[in-house]
Design brief:
304 residues, Rossmann fold, five-stranded parallel β-sheet, four-stranded parallel β-sheet, 35% helix, binds phosphoric acid mono(formamide)ester
Length: 304
Amino acid sequence: MKHLIDIKDLSVDEIDEMIKVAKDIINHPEKYSHKCDNKILATLFFEPSTRTRLSFESAMMRLGGKVLGFSEANSSSVSKGESVSDTIRVVGYYSDIIAMRHPKEGAPYVASSNSIVPIINAGDGGHNHPTQTLTDLMTISSEKGHLDDLTIGVCGDLKFGRTVHSLINAMSRYKNIKFVLISPDELKLPDYVKSNVLDKCKIKYYETNTIEEYLPKLDILYMTRVQKERFFNEEDYKRLKDYYILTKDKLKIAKKDLCIMHPLPRVNEIATEVDSDPRAKYFEQANYGRFIRMALILKMLNIK
Ligand code: CP
């Protein structure tokens, strides 16, 4: 049995194969509509979610399976003091696979060592979000046609942004990738990601405070939200929340085939006027999420 806690739990070949399956699901959904008959996915979300939870549930239903679970800790016995380990041990009797989101870094890892069914990390604190990364890779592969030879700007909260950490981890394994790290000083990419991933993989990267400085060179611009829930003090959040706002005007200097991504939810960091720009791909990105999660469920349940 294999769990998915970190994107590195999957090899590049496994990811590429899953993207291939997800594309086949888009083209031939009928082939897959009974693959998970009699299977149950449990979604245990100790933190709010729209896309991840609902796309997992939709994915399992489109495969013919069923879903159960909870969308907030307060509606489970965790609110009575039950541990994550005990919860997972029990839910394993009721389901075949578990997708779990938790505000504490490492909680899905702890869960995996107490589980009799595969665990999928659906986001743990400011740490990792591997299925968002699969969604992002599927989007890049579909929209750009390749995952090598790209200059990727990641902008916003690079300190607490788990989607950014997982994306950098994943893309650093492809050829000729460069990163532009765009953030205020307070929200810079943590040193452990720079040394353990970028330096180790010999990935070139540039750091800047402004979107404009490197925008003309970017193939991908990955915007992120400044996350209120990760701040210890309201003043810091208020000072930084509108640091970046991508507008139509700013995009005038960008490449014609730039791909603008965002894991969503968005707050103010992309003006709604950008939504009609053909380079804006963040809603397509959310849609790709369901197909790659279908491919992931099939892989983890070992269904061909
Ligand atoms: N991208 C993402 O994880 O969205 P949700 O928080 O809505 O699941």
